[in-house]
Structures are given as structure tokens and as C-alpha cells.
């Protein structure tokens, strides 16, 4: 069950619980943020992304993707989800195979005057009444932490100027991962904050094949170095 190799969907005693909500403000146009989120699915994958995300089927605005995540030791959890893209304001995820029988999630993008608001919300369902609900709580905690880490990585990447290497001073720990903190807000909502951190070394540049420019917005160009991958 932990690795999702034997998915359990009994359809008896179904209970659901919320995932999120939480969000982050990103100092970048909404088109850029959407591009950063969608590139590992709709664009050409880097080697690092391909190790985490395998595209099983691809359409113009939807993919069926298998996400591989190390669990413990050599254990690898594999979840399969449909991912639907509504540019540039929404990305929807629906679980088809995983450690629980039901998960739906949304990434919602809202354009502001000087920034983009990226929010996460979802729902997780389990079977077998209270016993399944306890299992759902165990699954939900790392599931949400993965999304929080992804949001912090998206923020750091979307806000980084073209050609500027990631360093501890502009959002990296030196190992490619930004520090993050989730602070509660009123109404049970959370806020993801990126802490640049202290110490460490600059992230090494990736190979030239990992660098590309894509046209976004009104004729502008935005260069992306895909140093992060999703960890579902």
C-alpha cells in the first residue's frame, strides 16, 4: 500500500478529508508561472524530470503521468494521475492509482497587478471508515509537504532573472532546494514563504540541453533552467 503497488479501492466506508488550502505569491507574470508548472508535462523533459515523471499518454491539454517518489531505502512509490491544463489559470490532478483510492487537486493561478497568486486545494478519500481515515491522515501529511516544496521551487524559478544562477542568496540552499516555511492564515489557510537561507554553494549549471527559451505573454521571452522536478 505504501508504494501503491497494490492499490486498494473497496468502495466501502468512504471518507474524505481536505488537502490544503495554502498558497504563495510569486513576483512573475501568470503566463510565466503556468509555463514553469506545465513544462515537465507538456514540454521536453530534462533527464532529472524524466526520472521523477513518466508521461504515459499525452494530449494537447491533458496527460496521464506516473510520478515516482523515493519512500524509504530502495522503496519507490508510484502514483498515476491525469493532469489537465487550463492555461493560464488552472491545473487539475486526479489520481488513478496510488496509496489511497481517491485524490483530486487543483493548482489555481490568479494574476495580480505585480504578481501571481498560486493556490493549492484538494480532497483525499479513503475506504473502511475510521481505520481508513487514519491511513488517509498519514498519507496526506507527506503529500501536502511535496506540494509545498514544489510551490517554493516554482516561486524561486519563476522569479529568477534570465541567466542568473541560483545561489543561497536568491533562493537556493546550495543543493537545489529552497528553504520554505508554511505559516497558518485565518480560516485554516496556509501561506508558503521562501527563506533564502545562509551558506552552501551555488547550484551548478545544468547541461546546455536543459536550457531553453519559450515565448510567453505579449511577445516577451523567458529563459528557464529546469532545476526542480515534482516529487509526487
CATH class: Alpha Beta
Count of DSSP H/I helices = 3
Helical percent range?
Answer: 10-25%
Overall number of strands = 11
Indicate the topology.
Blueprint: E1 15-26, H1 30-42, H2 47-52, E2 53-58, E3 62-72, E4 75-86, E5 90-97, E6 102-111, E7 116-126, H3 129-159, E8 179-184, E9 190-195, E10 211-216, E11 220-225
Parallel strand pairs: 1-9
Antiparallel strand pairs: 1-7, 2-3, 3-4, 4-5, 5-6, 6-7, 8-9, 10-11
Helix pairs in contact: 1-3
Q: How would you describe what is shown here?
A:
With 232 residues, the protein is an alpha+beta fold. Helix 1 packs across helix 3. The chain has one domain: Alpha-D-Glucose-1,6-Bisphosphate, Chain A, domain 4 (2-Layer Sandwich), CATH 3.30.530.20. It has a 9-stranded mixed sheet. It has helices spanning 30-42, 47-52, 129-159, and strands at residues 15-26, 53-58, 62-72, 75-86, 90-97, 102-111, 116-126, 179-184, 190-195, 211-216, 220-225. The radius of gyration is 18 Å and the shape is globular. It starts with 14 loop residues before the first strand and ends in a 7-residue tail after the last strand. The chain is built from 3 helices and 11 strands.
Amino acid at each position: 500500500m505504501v508504494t501503491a503497488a497494490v492499490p486498494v479501492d473497496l468502495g466501502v466506508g468512504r471518507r474524505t478529508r481536505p488537502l490544503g488550502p495554502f498558497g504563495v505569491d510569486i513576483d512573475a507574470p501568470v503566463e510565466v508561472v503556468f509555463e514553469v508548472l506545465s513544462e515537465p508535462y507538456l514540454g521536453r523533459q530534462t533527464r532529472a524530470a524524466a526520472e521523477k515523471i513518466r508521461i504515459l499518454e499525452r494530449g494537447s491539454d491533458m496527460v496521464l503521468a506516473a510520478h515516482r517518489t523515493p519512500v524509504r531505502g530502495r522503496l519507490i512509490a508510484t502514483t498515476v494521475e491525469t493532469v489537465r491544463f487550463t492555461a493560464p489559470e488552472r491545473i487539475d490532478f486526479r489520481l488513478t492509482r496510488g496509496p489511497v483510492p481517491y485524490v483530486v487537486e487543483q493548482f489555481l493561478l490568479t494574476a495580480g497587478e505585480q504578481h501571481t497568486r498560486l493556490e493549492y486545494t484538494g480532497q483525499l478519500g479513503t475506504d473502511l471508515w475510521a481505520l481508513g481515515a487514519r491511513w488517509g491522515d498519514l498519507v496526506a501529511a507527506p503529500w501536502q509537504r511535496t506540494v509545498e516544496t514544489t510551490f517554493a521551487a516554482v516561486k524561486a524559478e519563476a522569479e529568477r532573472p534570465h541567466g542568473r544562477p541560483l545561489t543561497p542568496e536568491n533562493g537556493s540552499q546550495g543543493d537545489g532546494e529552497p528553504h520554505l516555511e508554511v505559516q497558518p492564515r485565518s480560516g485554516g489557510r496556509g501561506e508558503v514563504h521562501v527563506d533564502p537561507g545562509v551558506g552552501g554553494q551555488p547550484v551548478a549549471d545544468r547541461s546546455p540541453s536543459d536550457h531553453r527559451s519559450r515565448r510567453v505573454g505579449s511577445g516577451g521571452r523567458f529563459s528557464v533552467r529546469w532545476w526542480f522536478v515534482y516529487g509526487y
